[in-house]
Design brief:
The chain is mostly helical and 290 residues long. It is built from 13 helices and no strands.
Length: 290
């Protein structure tokens, strides 16, 4: 499941870049949520599941979508109109640090240890080696606001992971479908007013990229996300941000013709070492029903 998230969230940086050729950022985010919600709702109904009628759960769905979809999707998509996907991937690699700090205070059996902190630092070093130090030279300057937007997105993801672990027991498919549907409904009025999507003329490549984002990087990925947090905890999930830059770079090399350097293989080895060091030997207990 972690590999699935790493693959499709890593490819999401490339798909967003393609989708931006035909859609503005808010419309891309809404399409991701709407398509993902439709896919999961149909699958949930096929499995015999139903969305809860309790207003309390819908309040949780809105909060989950706000922290896990609306804010980070919008911030990252907007940021990629001003900074490179490699730089965005590097900044996203700071998420494990904020996650392990929050989990230490709010999640049982997720205490911060010297070994875990050292692993987080080593993993970030590996990401820095992988994407290249030239990305560091681009930090600050005129793109500072976009860089802060990505950092805010990482913090939002961290809060969402910890909050997810503290939810009452519920089927993962139901909470995944409910959170995406809530997010699509909340965002729709803003998209209609700001982007006026009926005036857009996107090409086929933008449509394919947006639908792919919705099905694979949003719908199915959200379901898998809740399963991973439930079974393994937020700190384990956070290491995905060390794998995503590797996949984002691979996508750039394959689809955009970017060259690969020998030092980047060293970066991969350092990333894997950091992941191994950061993981606790103790298994956590899931919160969701299967």
């Amino acid at each position: 499941m972690l590999l699935y998230l790493s693959l499709f969230w890593g490819l999401a940086f490339y798909l967003i870049a393609v989708a931006l050729r035909g859609f503005p950022p808010l419309t891309i985010v809404w399409l991701r949520l709407a398509v993902g919600a439709a896919v999961l709702y149909l699958f949930m109904r096929w499995q015999g599941g139903r969305l809860p009628g309790d207003l309390g759960w819908w309040g949780r769905f809105v909060l989950l979508s706000l922290c896990g979809n609306l804010l980070p999707f919008t911030l990252i998509t907007w940021a990629e109109t001003r900074i490179s996907s490699g730089q965005a991937g590097l900044l996203m690699a700071l998420m494990p640090l904020s996650t392990v700090l929050l989990a230490h205070f709010y999640v049982a059996h997720e205490q911060l240890t010297t070994r875990k902190l050292f692993g987080v630092v080593v993993g970030f070093l590996g990401v820095t080696i992988l994407v290249g130090t030239d990305v560091l030279s681009g930090l600050g300057g005129g793109q500072l606001l976009a860089q802060f937007a990505v950092l805010a997105a990482t913090l939002s993801y961290a809060v969402n992971s910890v909050y997810t672990k503290r939810l009452p027991p519920i089927e993962t498919l139901v909470v995944a479908a409910g959170s995406l549907l809530a997010g699509a409904l909340v965002l729709l009025p803003l998209v209609l007013v700001v982007d006026r999507p009926w005036t857009l003329e996107p090409g086929l490549d933008a449509w394919v990229a947006s639908i792919s984002l919705g099905v694979f990087a949003t719908g199915l990925a959200t379901w898998v996300y809740f399963k991973v947090v439930s079974d393994c905890g937020p700190s384990f999930l956070s290491v995905i941000n060390y794998l995503i830059p590797a996949i984002a770079f691979a996508a750039g090399a394959v689809f955009l013709g970017e060259s690969a350097q020998p030092y980047q293989f060293i970066g991969l080895l350092v990333i894997f070492a950091g992941i191994a060091l950061s993981q606790s030997r103790r298994r956590t207990v899931g919160r969701f029903a299967d």
